[in-house]
Design brief:
about 375 residues; mainly beta; Porin; eleven-stranded antiparallel barrel
């Protein structure tokens, strides 16, 4: 295993302390915090009382509280890998078989190779606590995907015919989750995540492609370019967090379990384990480091309308194992009309990727978010 390590840069913003105002989401400091009472008797708001912004369903609320949130996530992928070995476009086009060879117009090897993919996701969330022991959460998303390709000429050789891009955008799947308190003291918190994903994202996205015969037909895009899973998915999880003094830590184990199939297939189940540590430099700012590991199964079944001499059309070329290293920063406004508003940023890159390939490698993941409780 040869880790891929990139430099992680975080832009630290400066937030000015304003005049004091009301806040519905104040927390008592944990033992050893050494925090003084804030402006005119208001308790400081810990910037690290929420997990890094890339972690969902990390905290609960007091009875009657609401929280609204917005997240922007960008994932960038480029270059190809099979298992832990990198592959050039020419290697893919000359050595890897086309699953659909034998069907009309299908060459023996892959002739269309993805080179880059960008996924932007806008997520709107709302949380409400009807009681201290349960917090309800809903999250809707809007997704924008683009993928760049190289098409090689004819049925063999390494002559490049040209390049093309496919795009899809629209609403993604919707998540509904209940967070159920299991244990809590002044240092430690533990809750269960019980969620379901509703198939509100489209699985019928189409675009034009450049074929090896220099034609440009329009057809259904591969699984990676669709906006939703097409299935109802269970989202179980377990979340632990702790704080002592200016230090915070936590871990979360979650799964995405596909129920049934759609268009003859279902995406692979996803299992994720993440852990983080944070340090609060002042009540208004904290920084964090997080490690995230995921394992994802291959696509089960096949959509008969997704056919072509491209790796993304083959259900076997999905899933794998990833380990990401991420750095983040959280801000919490302490006073004035913006008291209680939070801003956060997290940036990460894989240090290990073992892919059911060939697949595009993940280059980086960035999440920027805003949260406000009342």
């Amino acid at each position: 295993m040869k880790p891929i390590v990139n430099t992680i840069a975080v832009l630290v913003l400066s937030l000015a302390t304003l005049t004091p105002g009301a806040d519905a989401h104040e927390e008592s400091p944990p033992p050893g915090a050494g925090l003084s009472v804030g402006n005119e008797g208001l308790k400081p708001i810990r910037a690290d009382s929420h997990a890094p912004i890339g972690v969902m369903g990390d905290h609960m609320h007091k009875a009657g509280e609401w929280m609204l949130s917005y997240r922007f996530m960008r994932m960038r992928m480029e270059d190809n890998r099979k298992s832990t070995h990198n592959l050039s476009p020419e290697e893919i086009a000359t050595t890897l078989p086309n699953r659909f060879f034998g069907l009309p117009g299908q060459p023996p090897t892959l002739r269309v190779v993805p080179t880059h993919m960008t996924m932007d996701m806008h997520m709107l969330g709302a949380m409400y606590a009807p009681a201290d022991w349960v917090t309800l959460m809903a999250m809707a998303s809007y997704v924008d995907k683009s993928m760049e390709h190289i098409t090689f000429q004819g049925g063999a050789g390494t002559t490049r015919l040209g390049t093309f891009s496919t795009n899809s955008s629209g609403f993604g799947d919707t998540r509904l989750t209940a967070l159920l308190k299991l244990y809590r003291d002044r240092i430690n918190k533990l809750h269960f995540n019980a969620g379901i994903s509703l198939p509100t994202g489209s699985t019928n996205e189409k675009d034009r492609v450049l074929t090896p015969m220099n034609t440009r037909p329009k057809g259904r895009l591969p699984y990676a370019m669709q906006l939703g899973s097409g299935t109802f998915d269970l989202l179980p999880g377990l979340t632990y967090t702790g704080h002592y003094g200016d230090f915070g830590w936590g871990s979360q184990a979650t799964a995405t379990l596909r129920l049934g199939n759609h268009h003859g297939y279902s995406l692979g189940n996803r299992y994720e384990l993440t852990a983080w540590g944070s340090y609060q430099w002042a009540p208004w700012i904290s920084t964090s480091v997080r490690v995230d590991g995921q394992t994802v199964g291959k696509v089960d079944g096949q959509d008969k309308k997704i056919v072509g001499p491209v790796q993304t059309a083959d259900p076997r070329n999905y899933g794998g194992e990833w380990v990401d290293l991420l750095a983040g920063v959280n801000f919490a406004v302490q006073g004035g009309p913006l008291r209680g508003h939070r801003l956060a940023l997290e940036v990460g890159t894989p240090v290990y990727q073992d892919l059911h390939g060939p697949q595009l490698k993940t280059d980086y993941v960035l999440t920027l978010g805003w949260q406000y409780a009342f």
